[in-house]
Amino acid sequence: MTSSYLISSGVILLTVVGIAYGGTFLMRVVDRRVPANELQRSYFRAGHAHAGILVILGLVVRLLLLDDAVPGWSRAMGDLVLLAAILMPAGFFLSVIGRDPARPNGLKVLIWLGAGALVVGLVAAGVGLIVGGASL
């Protein structure tokens, strides 16, 4: 394991603290102390949930792909799960920014880009683990 890998994994783990702090914003939204319409409340909840789950999933994928038997392409593509942890929540939050939006704006595309990154990253990680396991 390289020092840059350890440092980047540590930084990623520390983002969970930020996500947890974001939960306090979500509580203010749900308690109606922050003005938000129902669309915004729903999207903010989804963004917060996706951020937390995908960061942890991205770290788990990184740990699973540490073995030298796993092909390098799989390790690189596995980090797409972490990219999804950025894109999807950003899409949920940024697509409903503004005063009382009636529908999400064009930044909703980030949700779909994140979903694509998630699928590709998980498939690459899964195939890499199978290939690595079969070659032992």
From TrEMBL:
Protein source organism: Nocardiopsis aegyptia
TM stretches of this protein: 6-30, 42-65, 77-97, 109-131
Record's protein name: Cytochrome b561
Keyword list, A-Z: Membrane, Transmembrane, Transmembrane helix
